[in-house]
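Entry for oxa(dethia)-CoA complex. Fields follow.
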Amino acid sequence: MTGQRTPHQAADTAAVVTGLGTCLPETVVTNDDLAQHLDTDHAWIQSRTGIERRRRAAAGTGTGDLAVAAGAAALKSAGRDTCDLVLLATTTPDRRCPATAPSVASRLGVEAAAFDLSAVCSGFVYGLTVAAAMITAGTCQRALVIGADVYSTIVDPTDRATAVVFGDGAGAVVLERGRADQPGAVLHAELGSDGTGSDLITIPPDGPHLTMRGREVYTHAVTTMARSARSVAERAGWHPADVDAFVGHQANLRILTSVAKRLGLPQERVVANIADVGNTAAASIPLALADAAVAGRITAGDRLLLTAFGGGLTWGSAAVVWPGVEPVCDVRT
Ligand code: UT7
């Protein structure tokens, strides 16, 4: 297997994905459901975003609840019952203080360092990168990286620009210390930000709801995701033909299509589950991975290019060789 090691890695040492778990709320909200109380319709939503339905958490179900279920599922997938780091990427923590991750760790019954990470829709790739670096540095041995968001708690249900886009969900991976030539290895990752665009996706000071200047975000997302993904692929030593699957943040099907085109990747290499779950923010990439793995769309040894973009503005990409783990997928209210 080719692939340049991240500079901080000791020879042959890498963080390796060993488990994948997800949790989706059971309630499905279709485009037609939304059109009953919003000035929108299925044809617009489907053609402009690729979304057909999304999941919504029941009142009282929080990010922590979905994170615990996805985390437990990922540990089960890995065949493990402990870890020494719980990293929760979320924009919708259960409370402002303290972080949600320590209670997630306690509810999972693990004694671990635990913290939340706030990078909006790039949260999972940020979390994966930070946890991988901690593993290769020897700071921890086994990390649970969870992306969980309940955007139904921050989206204005009367704002058609955001209400049709976002869905609730959680996804998680287990990362362990291993070798760079092992399936599951995180070969290279890069992160970036541009705070001059902080007002494009924001909860304004006079809140309480999320606002998004969609058209502007769209343009930034296409350009930046393509640049970031290309850079990571090059650093991993991959040509476009080497990439088996492009797993981008599921913000908009048209964004994924455009980025793949810019990268010179055929459309059949694009992994997309946005039709079924919408934009699930930090949960988006692990949910897409699980969907693709269950469908047999990605298999052991496949070279995956992960790329995310979101509020902040933030972005990140990672080159990962898929380990062929069996995802465990949970559903709750
Ligand atoms: O996850 C973090 C990163 N987020 C993203 O990457 C999101 C990127 N942005 C997008 O995905 C798209 O910009 C949206 C899906 C949010 C919006 O699609 P768009 O094609 O950029 O629409 P637009 O905002 O430019 O609006 C076009 C028209 C407008 O009408 P006029 O002014 O042309 O008459 C909107 O009022 O579509 C109208 N519109 C809608 N019509 C029916 C906006 N939302 C809706 C709607 N249903 N839900």
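NOTE: The first strand starts at residue 13 and ends at 25.
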